[in-house]
Amino acid sequence: MKPIRAAVVGGGAFGECHLKTFAAMPQVEVAGLYTLEQDKAKALCHQYGGKPFENLDQLVSAPDIELVSIATPEDAHYESFQALAENGKSIYVEKPLATTLPEAEKILALSQSIIAMSGHCLRFESRLAHVFSQREHLGQLRHMSFRNKRRLAEKEIYGRVHPAFAMLCHEVELSNAFAEERFKRVIALETRFSGGQVDGMNILIEYPSGATASIEGGWLLPTQSSLQENDRCSLDFEHGTFEITLPNLGFTFLSAQGCEFRNQQYEFNVYGMEFGALRTALEYMVQCIQNHTPPQISTVEDGYEAVRLIAAALQSANSGNWVEGD
Asked: Phi and psi at residue 18, in whole multiples of 5°?
């Protein structure tokens, strides 16, 4: 089968992740990259393939590009999505879908005429995917508990947006997906202990079925390089409870800097080839394009519902009250 030609918009850390993942996929041919930093675009294309595009219009108008990943900063997804969608490109847009509800609504509307997918690739993390595959046998969902901690040093980069959008959007999307329904109401609190953006957030969610979810996290870890993330979730069903921790897979590296925990689930390199949840998500997207079928996992609708819940949580944190889902 003819390879899918794919390009990336955004040349930061996530943009490079997408480029090198595409380069590792035999069913994909890297077409290139557009980023504001042209020197960086040239260097990345030299390493992973394709060509640097001078502007977004040049990429959008390329007739042979079928798939584009949007990996721009969290609050800059809409402009690229609009231009690409109006030109019929298939789009994988990094999480969160948007950082405002009006922009999320516009992206949702634009997505109806194309093959598009939101970048909540934890839906493809092997352990979480296993729980989803067993969902119909687990009985009633009772409670979900998610914790997501990152280094305070990361706030220098990702503090450009609220931590609910920068990191907790993954857990919000997972919560909605396991509940299999829109939220009934939400209440939230913010944590502040350093300057600038909010440092953390606690969210409590109730669903119409009676299931509940608690989500907490933020830039809460000490600023050392050896401990980059500390996530866990507990999923309570009628017929059993799942406990999952990230990145704890019994894989550590002890050095003068301390004990480093290696995450082998999201994206990792084996002899020059990228694997993990991101690659699985992109391979699923490519399969949808080849089969001319809309994605059923991590859809734009799922991404929109995550933004809708976060918007309600931010409203709750500001007012101190429960916010109803409708």
From this structure: -70, -40
CA contacts within 13 A on the Cβ side of 79:
10
- 167 and 200: one domain? yes
**How many structural domains are present in the chain?**
2
Tokens (6 digits) for 110: 């634009």
Q: Prior bond to 102 cis, omega within 30?
A: no
CA pair distance 182, 308, nearest whole angstrom:
10
Q: Which pLDDT score, from 0 to 100, does residue 226 have? A: 57
The total number of residues written for the chain in this structure: 326
Q: Rounded to whole angstroms, how far apart are CA atoms 10 and 323?
A: 35
| Domain hosting residue 220, numbered range | 125-266+307-324
Percent of the chain beyond pLDDT 70? 92
Which sign, positive or negative, has the C-alpha torsion 113, 115, 121, 122? Answer: positive
Same domain flag for 221 and 290: no
104-132: burial string, b at 16+ Cβ within 10 Å, e else:
bebbbebbeebbbbbbbbbbbbeebeebe
Judgement on whether residues 283 and 212 belong to the same structural domain of the protein? no
Residue 240 CA to residue 46 CA, distance in Å, equals 50
Tokens of residue 233, six digits: 């979730």
Residues 112 and 153 in one domain: no
Tell me whether strands 90-94 and 116-119 are parallel, antiparallel or unpaired: parallel
Whole-prediction pTM value? 0.92
In this predicted structure, what is the pLDDT of residue 22? 97
Structure tokens given for 54 = 């001078």
pLDDT digits (tens, 9 = 90+) for 204-261: 999 999 999 999 999 998 766 555 666 899 999 999 999 988 766 666 667 776 666 6
Judged against a pLDDT cut of 70, whether residue 263 lies above it is answered with: no
The mean pLDDT of 149-156, rounded to a whole number, is 89
Per-position DSSP letters for 143-158, written without gaps between them: EEEEEEEEEGGGHHHH
